[in-house]
Amino acid sequence: MRFSSTIAVALATTFIEASALPRSGGACPAVWTQISQDLTQMFIQADGQCNDDARSAIRAVFHDCGTWSSSQGLTGGCDGSVFLSDVENARPENRGLQSISAKLKALASQRGVGVADMIAFAGAHGTLSCPLGPTTKTMIGRIDSSKPAPDENLLPGNASMSADTIISLFADKGFSAADVAALAGAHSSSKQFFVDPSRAGAPQDRTPGIWDVDYYSDTITKPADVFVFDSDIALSQDPRSGPAFKSFIGQQAAWNQAFVDTFARLMLLGVPQEGLVDCTSALPPPRDSFPGANTPSGASNLTSRRNYAFYKPVKQVA
Ligand code: HEM
């Protein structure tokens, strides 16, 4: 769905007014519980794994918020512009986000909430929609903008970028190299369509429907049916990000914790925090035991154990 800039501005104004509701602080508006139910329908496929809409929603958080740099202060970043600005939406790095953009904008309009909040909430819901996915603290009350992010080169989202470029761009957003290693694990749930169109749909680990740590081992061992990004290989090898990257192999709980710590910060880049309300409780519960997931021997579920030293990849690494 495409919007003219005039319509987009009008819609953005509507969304700002709708978003004004929760900015007084306090309880999470009940509408987010309804939205959570909507997203569960949208994101979980018949076999219980997360689907393409879920992975696109997770990526959308990165592409909305990741255009922020420290020079922008409390502007830009997580402002919905990746969906609300036609200019930004059409940039090459945002290819593949058009379908989820149309769906989440329609849902935001239907439920009367802001698009920037919808992107953040849907991204957090997306990780939970993948079995073994963690709960990220999710605040609501962002201000929408249809102004395009100022510089497309601020988003470290190109698979041919060097580790140095990616780490530098993230450092300007307040993330360490270890944080980058944790965030890149989102590729546990991802598929590529545009890096190599001849292999459209190829996943970045063997289990894109499950939020597991196979990504970290698969990036190193490169199974034949996995499409490994050069950027992920570079991050696994760089002396700054590599140790953290390798430390997550086989360590589901450690990665989940590191991921939610960084993802919660990512989804607040550029956002004035006064008046935000905590809507984490509107998210669905984690599904940390799942048929086919190779959870630790003897553990009833993942949250019941603090140490997953016995966690093994779903398929053994060759
Ligand atoms: C570290 C730097 C990163 C680079 C270079 C990068 C690059 C890419 C590329 C090239 C794609 C494939 C797009 C396509 O061809 O369809 C992709 C997909 C994806 N990325 Fe990243 N990404 C990075 C970080 C992140 C972060 C921080 C997140 C979220 C927290 C994320 C989440 C995803 C997801 C979920 C997909 C799959 C989207 C889908 O299947 O539709 N990425 N990424």
UniProtKB/TrEMBL annotation:
Its EC number is 1.11.1.-. InterPro entries: Ccp1-like, Haem_peroxidase, Haem_peroxidase_sf, Ligninase, Pentaxin_CS, Peroxidases_AS. PROSITE patterns: PEROXIDASE_2 (PS00436), PEROXIDASE_4 (PS50873), PTX_1 (PS00289). The keyword Cell wall biogenesis/degradation does not apply. Heme b binds at H187. GO terms for molecular function: heme binding; metal ion binding; peroxidase activity. The record marks R59 as: Transition state stabilizer. GO terms for biological process: cellular response to oxidative stress; hydrogen peroxide catabolic process; response to reactive oxygen species. Ca(2+) 2 binds at S188, D205, T207, D212. This is Peroxidase.
